[in-house]
Amino acid sequence: MLTAEDFTRFPLQMWEKVLSKVKKAVVFMDDKCAEALHWNGGTAALLEAGARNLKQFSSFEACGANEPKAVFVVSTLLKGRTVDIIKDIISLSHFQYCVVFTTVAHSVHLLANNVTAEMEGNPVFEQFEEKLCEWMGNMNYTAEVMHVPLVFAPVSQQLLLTPTYAHLFPLLSPDLETLNAKRPEKKRFGSLIDIDVHSVPAELQIEIRSLTSALNAMFEATGTREESFAVGPMSRIIAGELANHPQAKNRRKTAPNKASIIFVDRTMDLTGAVGHHGDNLAEKILTVLKPLPGHVTDVQVDMLELTSLQRTPHSQNTLAPGCLAQNQSPVAQTLWEAMLTSKHKEAVMEVRRQLVEAASKEKLPIKMSMGRVTPEQLCSYMQLFRSSWGALESHCGVLQLGLAAAQTLRHPDLPRWDSCLAFERLLLQALGDSDFLTVLKQLLPLMKPRGGGDGSASRSREDECGPDELILLLVYLYSLADEAQPAHPNAEEDEEEELEKLERELIGALTFVITRETELSPLLQKLTGCANPEELTTERAHSSVEDMFETLRGLSHTRDHLKQLRSVYTASDGVHQATYRPFLRQILEEVFHPERVECPDIEHMSGGLTDLLKTGFSMFMKVSRPHPSDNLVLLLFLVGGVTPSELRLVKEVVTTHKPGMQVLVLSTRLLRPTDVPELLFTTQRLAPDIAV
């Protein structure tokens, strides 16, 4: 019988194909594949399989005369810059045997080369093998080129991420304008829902087809016939491409297993993605700790407290950081699951329990204490392990997760989390009582530089909002703009003018806040294109904020095409406060409805002609159409990212409504709140970089 575990095992099975080729080889790997490997056994898996070394995929790397074998693992098409780098490395080395793995299927290579005809074999890969031999300097040397979908990272038992597609994000209203600008007036799209895969730029087509090819490979390996459903414009395109995949049609005829997959656009619910209502430890860890270099998901954990080194300005460069991916330790994996899918308090207590258990096993002199868990208490437990190298090695996974928790709990940025939560709650209540203009005005007094614009220290407190938090609050509020009380019908024109005037004030105030920063956060660097405040001019900051507001204005219309699930807001009824109602919860409640009600917004995409015939017959007879709850395995694919809080929500809803069903979440990335403005305002959504 098919289980969710069959899907979480698939990435490891794909990496086995790479491991079978790395014996006595130097491996060159790009960042996206390295991140996928990080969650699939890491460098240790390569070295245990016999690899001699792992190097960055860069023109500045090469091998010596005593290293005749190379394996290249890349997440891009074999063209352009990728080919140049492979050629550079081979030219500077003395290889006699080269193997190249690409995560992009041969059919997508044909598409990228504008070949539409069906072709025997893999001519693009065969031609590239000849080039490799040419670069090695001898046509009798060995070269192999193959496609393996190394795109999935099993971050937990409940979550598969696709680091290769971390920047794939649903299209927004500015993208619609860009597409329409290149089309004749009579052929312009009325809304995002009208866009099909052939209407988007070639780079995005390649990214979508590469993703659907990887999903098809996963269903092939697990012997699964999928029923696809979609909510949102980008999800419709992806689900449609999966349904029309040439190999998928043959697979569906013979596959012994069945599963449902629902694709959901992240833009259906941006409120949940930027909000701070998630009572979740993992979400806070991902937010306050620095990301691992080259990684989208994992973070750096400072390991200094497990050593006798003194903290100095250079000590961080002395010691390699720890991380959250603990593939080698079942106990650490269980703890990570708890941190991801439990409430904050429960997760912190589980961290303490695991540390106490580990110390007791090693007979370390631990002092038990009950009551509230503090970061100091956790650190005191972990410092006991310094005295025993064996204990440190045995429990390294749990200790890294414990350090991540302690460093987050005492992080100076953490108080801002509660400040944002308090503002969000105030805004939620105000939306039920006032029009959008009135609620938006409440943000204006917050738009002040740190330390006060007049030299006073009015905003120097740790819990005060900086520019990042102000941008998050703007996204939060604009995503809920349609939930506000409507303006008086006679005052609509006046309100439109007032809103424009207020937005100009907010743009000016936020520009001033950004230009007064003494250090630019990663988000501000991406937003403005400047690495430090010295480069940043007022004009540049103002232009960036203006562009940001162009996108903000369209955020409240992302659910306009839906018939039923149009709101994520429940107004106050005088007894209960106004609340945010997660879109994902609404989807799952529809799927698990005991009467198997058909939701018009969850569109079935696998049917093709059969579905059209059923639609026609349903006009005069009762026809049973596929429903997401028909199968015991349900995959939820969130296009654009998922938050740890949503993972907990999925677990809770399934346990309550349908405990017998197995649900696996797939997504392009694990979101921290500040990822969302980056994806909204700085990502080239129409031209992702897989095609480079």
Automatic annotation (TrEMBL):
<comment type="similarity">
    <text>Belongs to the STXBP/unc-18/SEC1 family.</text>
</comment>
<dbReference type="InterPro" id="IPR036045">
    <property type="entry name" value="Sec1-like_sf"/>
</dbReference>
<protein>
    <submittedName>
        <fullName>Sec1 family domain containing 2</fullName>
    </submittedName>
</protein>
<dbReference type="GO" id="GO:0016192">
    <property type="term" value="P:vesicle-mediated transport"/>
</dbReference>
<dbReference type="GO" id="GO:0015031">
    <property type="term" value="P:protein transport"/>
</dbReference>
<keyword id="KW-0653">Protein transport</keyword>
<dbReference type="InterPro" id="IPR027482">
    <property type="entry name" value="Sec1-like_dom2"/>
</dbReference>
<keyword id="KW-0813">Transport</keyword>
<dbReference type="InterPro" id="IPR001619">
    <property type="entry name" value="Sec1-like"/>
</dbReference>
